[in-house]
Design a protein that fits this description.
By secondary structure, the protein is mainly α. The chain has six helices and no strands.
């Protein structure tokens, strides 16, 4: 669990660092003709799908944030005091971990929207000869989407586990 604890302290930094390292490795492999990258046209076609997936997942995460905020508001309005018999979920809503979970989800949404919009803007503005570079941004988008989704899904799983107890 120590690796996850370290990861959750700066998840966005680790996601982007991993993406950049992987992209650098692919650039190196492509430079020495170890791999062949897809054409610019294929990358361009794929970029709109990646952008749409990123924005869709950010919408789901925003929905999750809204639900958690609603549950927190309901707890505040109930004026019920915490005790030793309180459920772990109620304790979670009153703890610092609640704010951390919301921050993880919120910054995930920011990251997904940023990457999705960057891919859309690059797709519209890059010249046909430069579309090969879109492949690297598509790869960045796929990695950020995947890691953000898995991170948010893991946080949701932990919250559901607490709610079930």
């Amino acid at each position: 669990m120590k690796i996850l604890d370290r990861y959750y302290k700066r998840p966005i930094l680790y996601d982007y660092s991993f993406s950049i390292v992987l992209i650098c490795v692919l650039i190196w492999l492509n430079y020495y003709d170890k791999i062949t990258l897809p054409t610019g046209v294929k990358s361009s076609n794929l970029s709109s799908d990646i952008g749409a997936i990123g924005l869709t997942i950010s919408g789901f995460i925003l929905t999750l944030i809204t639900i958690l905020l609603t549950l927190k508001s309901g707890q505040i309005l109930s004026e019920e005091k915490l005790s030793n018999s309180s459920s772990p979920f109620k304790i979670f809503l009153a703890s610092k971990m609640y704010k951390r979970a919301i921050d993880i989800l919120k910054y995930g949404v920011y990251s997904l929207v940023l990457v999705s919009m960057l891919i859309y803007i690059l797709r519209m503005s890059l010249h046909t000869d430069s579309l090969i570079y879109l492949f690297y941004f598509n790869l960045l988008g796929i990695i950020i989407i995947l890691t953000t989704f898995l991170r948010c899904f893991h946080v949701l799983g932990l919250i559901m586990k607490m709610q079930g107890e």
